[in-house]
Every structure is written in C-alpha cells, then in structure tokens.
C-alpha cells in the first residue's frame, strides 16, 4: 500500500511539472493557433537560469523568481522575434519554432557550459515526513502544492477577471475580439509571456527533483507535454492538468515496474485518444478553462 | 448638408490574390440608415470588413469623422466608435450572454450603464438568458446579442451584415424593429438581401455589383424604379 | 525528354566520372554524403513541399533504415543477400510506421502530425537505447558490410549512392507529376476545395506520408553503409532539422532544391567543423544553422531554387508581354 502511495505521490509531482509545461502550450495554442515547439527550450532555460541564480544567491525562492523572470523575458522575445514575423502562416510557425528550440538548447550550452548541472533542494524542503507507514518526501509535496497553486490562480484569472474573459473569448473568435476594440496582439504577447514563465517555473522546480539538469531535457519534457496536450484536448486548460496527472502517474508506475515502457505507454495513451477522441478527453477547443 | 460620418473613396481590396473590391465609393450621413444592396458575391460583406480593417483596403481611402482610418488595425478602428455585427454574428459560444456583453464593455461608467440598460430594454430576451451560454441561444437571440454587443462601446456607427439571414419571418420582424429603434441613437450601415425590410428602415441605398458601387439614391427612389431592381437585385 | 531532364542527366554523368578523375577521398566521401542526404531531404520535400505536411520525426525513418540494415547484417553474414533483406525490412517497417502516423493524425490539423512524428522519433530513440542486445545501446556498434562496399570511399559505394539518388529523383519527380501528385499539390493549396470536389484527402496524404517515409529509410540504409557504424544519433532531432534546413534553403517543393541544399549544408558542416580549432563558437555550429534556418523561414521561404524559378518566370512573363506589346504596335501600325 505505501508503495502505491509513494508511486502516486511521485506521479503527481511529475504530473505537476508536466502540467506547468503543458498549460502554457495549450493556452497559447488555443488562443493563437500556434503550437510552440520551442516551449521545451523555455523549460530548460528556466532550469538552468534558476540553478545558476540558486548557486549565486543561495536562496531557492530567489531562484524561482529568477526563473520566472527569465521565462517572461524569453517568452516576450520568442513571441516578438519568432512568432510575430510569420503570424497567420501555420506551416511557417511550426517550422520556425522547432528551429528556435534547437537554438535555445545550444545557447544553453554556450552560456552555461556543455556539462550537466546538479541541484539539490534547499534545507527546509529536504528530507521527508513520516506519516504512519507512508514516507512523504517534502520536495515532492512542495512541487504538488506549487502546481495546484498555479492551476488555482490561473483558473481564477481565466474565470473571474476581464483579461481572462478576453483570453477565453479570443480562443473562440479572435476576429470578433478585435472588432470589439481589443488589441489581440497585446493579449497574445501577454499570454505567451505567462505561458513561458510557467514552463520556466516547471524547469527550475524539476532541477532539485531530478537532481541533474541537461540541455536535452527540454525536448524530453516537451514530448511529454505534447502528449498531455493531445490527451487533454488542445486549448483546454483544465484538460491539461488532468491529462498531465494521468501521464505523470503512468510514467511513475511504469518507471517502477518496466521502466523501458514508460514513454511507450504514454504514446499508446495518445494513440488511443487520437483514434477515439481526437478533440481530447476533456473537451476540445472552445473552452479555455 | 452635414459632412458624412463615413466616407469611402475608390476603395480596392484583395483577399489573398483575389481582387474582390474594384471601386467602392460611398458616403454615410450621420443619423441615417444606409443600405448596401447587391447580389451574392457583389462585395457587400467585404466592404464592411474593409471598413473594420479586417480585410484592409489596398487602394483608396476610408474616412471616419474626417479621419483617415484606412490603414488602422481593427481594434483601433473599433475604438474610434464603430461597432460590427458580422454575418455569422460572431457570438462567443462558450461565454454566457452576460460575458459576451462584458467583453465589449471597455470600462464601466454611467454612460455604459445607461447604454446597457437601454439595450436590455430593447432586447428583454437577453436579460432573461443572461447566464445562458451564447451557443445555446436561438438564431434570433444570437442576432440580438450581436447587435446589442456592437452597440456597447459608445459606438456611433454600427455595421450590420445581413441581420435577417436564416431567421423566421416573425423574428426578422422583431430584429428589424429593434434596428429601427437603434436608428434614433446611432448611424447604421446595413447589408441586407431582404429588400422589403431594407426599404422599410433604410434612408438611402447603394447598389454594389462586382465589387463596384454602381448606383445610389434615396430609398423611395428604388422602390419606384423596377428596372434598377431587376437589373441588380433580380427582384421585381 | 525535357530540357531540364537533359541537364540533370549530364550533371549525373559528370558526378559519376568524378571518382575516376579526382582522388581527394575526403571530398569524395563528402559528395557521397550529399547524395545520401539529398535522398533524405528530397523525401522530406515530398511531404512539406508537395503536400504541406510538416514532419518533425523524419529522423525516425532515416534511423529505421540504418538500424534495420545494421542489425540484419550484424546478426547474419555480411552478404549482399542480407543487405537486400535488411533493406526490405527497412522499407516494410518505414511503410508501416508512416502508415500508422498518417492514419492517426493526417485528418487533423497539421500540428498533430508534427507532434506525433516528433514523439514517435523520441520513442524509437529510447527503444534503440534500451534494446541493448540488438542495438548496443547508446554506444551503437560497428558492423561488417558486404565485401563490395567495404571500401567506404571507393567508387562502388559512391556510384551506388549516386544511382539510387538519380533513380529516386526521377521516380519521385514522376510521382509528383502523376495524377496523384497533382492532387497532393492541390491539397497543399486548398484542402477544403479538393475535399469538396470529392477526393479523399486522407488517402492521398497517407500515400505521400508512406512514400516519403520509405524513401527516407533508403537514405538511412546508404548512410549506415557509408559509416559501417550505427548509434542512436540517427534518431536525433538534429537529423530532422538537417532535412528541414536542406529543404528550406534549397527550395521547398522543387525536389532538386533539397539536393542542392544537402550539398550546401554538408559542405558547410565540413568547413565549420574545421574552423572549430580557430574558435570554439564553430563547435556550436547548430546555433549558426538554427539562426540561418529561422531567417530563411522568415525572409527566404522559397529557398534558392524557388527564388530562381520565380525570377525566371517573371522574366519570361515580361518577355512575353514585351513581345505582345510589339505585336500590338505592329498591328496598330498596319
């Protein structure tokens, strides 16, 4: 039983990290029709810049803030430099974001060196709690809480604020939003920045969780995030949370029993969704929240 | 005569490589209903989209309140005070009626509240279904919501694209009545196939044919001129 | 035989003579790599340029070709028979995988195919890492090849690659000019319209996906022959990006463009890695390629051949107009 519990916690933590990556991906897709293949690069940049700041400042909190700022800035840069010039052309957008992904990964090696970096949780998040037979690893609980918090805040913003209303309206009909006097490009930029910041946050949280970070992890996690986005439904925010937890669980349990098959199982999940419910398990486009 | 609120001069518009509008010129006097008539594919919808900046004009100019808005982006044009009701109404189907209205409300003050009240009195249905998702409304209700929403932004000019399309005659009657009431408060450019309706609420008309304005006049004139109606509109 | 066909045949013949008159082995094997990646990029062009499908896992088919042949040769004797058997296996696996990927996603928006192929390539990479007994894991393995190909910079392998390139070039060109190819191009231009005429879009797209995958796997077969070694890097996204870069730089939808693109990229690789001693930045040439690629997508989307064609057509059009103008004048005068 405690094995099950531990694996479930593990899966939930992994799921939350994937969620942070997938959430931005899915909202950006819903609103802008852009599937950002460079999203994993922003995740990796969050991890590297966070760990770097962590090493210098010694404060994990500052590292998290630093990663978020990195995400916001890189997001703005990506939107302005990469997405905007080919606005409206899907094929070009897809092509260009993959190219940018590789540039981002290589730039990591140039800036931070080609070797992998190690990271450990801060003292106050290190160790575990004993709860009867169950051992709760503090850092994993922390990740789960942060993920839940990000979901809650984003959900609130989408449902209860004017900017959230505009984003949801934009997902349904961009042209009409503009015709009502709203500068949709500005909304695009904002959403892109926030989505990138979420990815960067996921990256920096991953670092002490897995212990090491390396440039290729961006692509590895991005593939999981793509699977999540397909399973959850492209453009569905809540769908991305549920699917991320599903994929995280599958990953954790398979990794324990037959680790070779964990990616394969998630791929199979995605195949099944593509065959039987291509709009995703949790509602498709049209409902951002 | 007063200067026109909206003026189009020799407007030409392309969509992709297709040349849709060849030469559109017309004037919309303040406080009147100007009707754009013409067969399918004459360029009526594209004309409205060009005014909104959704399909910007390649040549020619669009003037609003004596200001050149030809090259402005759609949201800037909307901000100048132009409301748009597209042919498909453009309802945000997953948002409630109330949310649909709120997207259009840039700010909340006395003037917008007054507008909201007035427009909800005009379309009491919207009040009834305030919390219903836009996608679940009937065709007529969607049309009313679209018109009400377009009116919200302290707009002085409404562009309404075929409000009678696909509606039952009795609903058309209701929609037209409300447009007639809106006329008291705003200037309207109306694209309409339903000639009977158009002639009832229109003050003046322009006929579009193959992307050109080919004829204009006061609405009564068209009612009397059968040859013109036959030639461009295919109705007796 | 059209004029362009004639030119291609002459170029091919010149390239065929090259190893007998020029003996810089490094350059020769580089040219051979151009042939191999030319085939690979051409197969990519069939998707992107002729059907408008974006694949981000094209490396997967390349890798399937490489590993199929490598494993079959490694597990059996290194004879021509097993080479052919391996190639057959490669074609079969590539065909099945591309069929599945196509059927699953080609009825959906273009993002789905890109995403699925990316994920599938990742899956194959993991599989190649984990099935150590067959693949040697991350380090890969060195393999024996049939005797005739043992000299990797000898003329036999060089000519084989050239012949395969030429044959596939004409076959694929033929295909794009066939009725099926015409439908594919119509799909690229306007999918809805083609569908409304009553064509099953899906069917045509899956065919394109399969042919492209199979041709790519052949490139992988030749690649492994030229290296006599295989490791998981054949499945890497970099390989896909190479194909993309070659296709885009050379000219999307031109077939010959990607081959020219392959030439440019391969030689650039070569020189840039030489420059690595001069400055470390050249070790990170992927950045350079990535930036060139991004700029090309934004500013130069038709590529070299596409842009030349455009200029050519414009000039021809002008000439024609000029002719007509003089004709009109003459008529008016008389």
Automatic annotation (TrEMBL), chain A:
Species for this entry: Pontibacillus yanchengensis Y32
Keyword Acetylation appears in the UniProt entry: no
Family, as annotated: Belongs to the binding-protein-dependent transport system permease family. LivHM subfamily.
Segments traversing the membrane: 12-30, 60-82, 94-112, 139-158, 186-209, 221-247, 254-276
Keywords for this protein: Amino-acid transport, Cell membrane, Membrane, Transmembrane, Transmembrane helix, Transport
Chief localisation class: membrane
Taxon lineage: Bacteria, Bacillati, Bacillota, Bacilli, Bacillales
Protein name listed in UniProt: ABC transporter permease
Gene Ontology annotations for the cellular component aspect, listed alphabetically: plasma membrane
Entry's Gene Ontology molecular function annotations: transmembrane transporter activity
Cellular location(s): Cell membrane
């Amino acid at each position: 039983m405690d094995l099950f519990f531990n694996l479930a916690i593990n899966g939930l933590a992994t799921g939350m990290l994937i969620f942070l990556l997938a959430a931005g991906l899915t909202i950006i897709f819903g609103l802008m029709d852009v599937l950002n293949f460079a999203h994993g690069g922003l995740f990796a940049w969050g991890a590297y810049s966070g760990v770097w700041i962590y090493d210098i400042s010694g404060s994990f909190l500052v590292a998290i803030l630093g990663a978020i700022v990195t995400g916001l800035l890189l997001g703005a840069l990506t939107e302005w430099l990469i997405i905007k010039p080919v606005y409206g052309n899907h094929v070009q957008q897809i092509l260009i974001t993959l190219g940018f992904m590789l540039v981002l990964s290589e730039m990591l090696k140039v800036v931070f060196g080609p070797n992998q970096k190690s990271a450990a949780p801060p003292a106050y998040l290190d160790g575990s709690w004993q709860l009867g037979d169950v051992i709760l690893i503090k850092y994993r609980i922390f990740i789960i809480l942060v993920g839940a918090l990000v979901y809650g805040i984003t959900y609130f913003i989408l449902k209860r604020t004017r900017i959230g209303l505009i984003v949801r309206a934009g997902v349904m009909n961009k042209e009409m939003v503009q015709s009502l006097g709203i500068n949709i490009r500005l909304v695009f930029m904002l959403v892109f920045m926030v989505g990138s910041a979420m990815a960067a946050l996921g990256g920096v949280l991953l670092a002490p969780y897995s212990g090491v970070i390396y440039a290729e992890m961006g692509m590895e996690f991005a593939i999981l995030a793509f699977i999540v986005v397909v399973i959850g439904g492209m453009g569905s925010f809540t769908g991305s949370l549920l699917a991320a937890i599903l994929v995280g669980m599958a990953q954790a349990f398979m990794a324990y029993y037959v680790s070779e098959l964990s990616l394969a199982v998630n791929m199979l999940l995605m195949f099944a969704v593509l065959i039987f419910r291509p709009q995703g398990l949790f509602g498709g486009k049209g409902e951002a929240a | 005569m007063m200067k026109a609120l909206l003026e189009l001069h020799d407007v030409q518009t392309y969509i992709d490589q297709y040349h849709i509008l060849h030469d559109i010129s017309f004037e919309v006097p303040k406080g009147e209903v100007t009707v754009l008539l013409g067969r399918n594919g004459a360029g009526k919808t594209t004309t409205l989209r060009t005014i909104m900046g959704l399909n910007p004009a390649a040549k020619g100019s669009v003037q609003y309140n004596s200001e050149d808005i030809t090259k402005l982006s759609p949201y800037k044009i909307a901000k100048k005070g132009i409301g748009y009701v597209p042919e498909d109404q453009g309802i945000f189907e997953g948002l409630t009626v109330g949310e649909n209205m709120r997207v259009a409300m840039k700010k909340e003050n006395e003037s917008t509240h007054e507008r909201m009240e007035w427009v909800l009195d005009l379309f009491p249905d919207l009040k009834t279904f305030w919390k219903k998702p836009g996608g679940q409304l009937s065709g007529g209700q969607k049309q009313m919501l679209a018109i009400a929403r377009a009116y919200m932004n302290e707009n002085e000019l409404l562009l309404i694209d075929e409000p009678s399309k696909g509606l039952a005659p009795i609903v058309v009657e209701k929609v037209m009545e409300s447009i007639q009431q809106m006329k008291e408060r705003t200037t309207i450019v109306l694209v309409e196939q339903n000639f009977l309706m158009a002639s009832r609420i229109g003050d003046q008309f322009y006929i579009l044919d193959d992307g050109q304005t080919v004829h204009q006049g006061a609405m009564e004139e068209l009612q009397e001129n059968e040859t013109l109606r036959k030639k461009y509109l295919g109705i007796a | 035989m059209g004029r362009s066909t004639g030119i291609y045949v002459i170029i091919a013949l010149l390239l065929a003579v090259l190893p007998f008159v020029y003996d810089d082995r490094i350059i020769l094997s580089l040219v051979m790599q151009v042939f191999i990646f030319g085939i690979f990029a051409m197969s990519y062009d069939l998707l992107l340029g002729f059907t408008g499908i974006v694949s981000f896992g094209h490396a997967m088919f390349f890798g399937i070709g490489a590993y199929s042949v490598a494993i079959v040769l490694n597990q059996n004797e290194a004879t021509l028979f097993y080479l052919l058997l391996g190639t057959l296996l490669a074609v079969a696996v590539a065909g099945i995988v591309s069929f599945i990927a196509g059927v699953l996603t080609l009825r959906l928006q273009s993002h789905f195919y890109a995403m699925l192929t990316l994920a599938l390539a990742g899956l194959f990479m993991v599989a190649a890492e984990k099935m150590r007994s067959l693949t040697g894991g991350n380090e890969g393995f060195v393999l024996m090849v049939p005797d005739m190909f043992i000299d990797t910079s000898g003329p036999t392998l060089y000519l084989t690659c050239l012949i395969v390139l030429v044959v596939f070039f004409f076959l694929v060109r033929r295909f794009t000019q066939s009725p099926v190819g015409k439908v594919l191009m119509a799909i690229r231009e306007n999918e809805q319209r083609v569908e409304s005429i009553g064509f099953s879009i899906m069917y045509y797209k899956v065919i394109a996906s399969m042919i492209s995958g199979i041709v790519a796997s052949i490139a992988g077969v030749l690649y492994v022959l030229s290296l006599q070694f295989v490791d998981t890097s054949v499945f890497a996204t970099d390989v896909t990006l190479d194909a993309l870069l070659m296709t885009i730089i050379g000219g999307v939808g031109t077939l010959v463009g990607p081959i020219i693109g392959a030439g440019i990229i391969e030689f650039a690789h070569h020189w840039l890695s030489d420059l690595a001693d001069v400055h470390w930045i050249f070790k990170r040439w992927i950045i350079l390629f990535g930036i060139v690629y991004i700029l090309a997508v934004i500013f130069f989307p038709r590529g070299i051949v596409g842009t030349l064609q455009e200029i050519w057509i414009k000039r021809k059009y002008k000439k024609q107009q000029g002719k007509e103008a003089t004709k009109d004048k003459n008529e008016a005068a008389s």
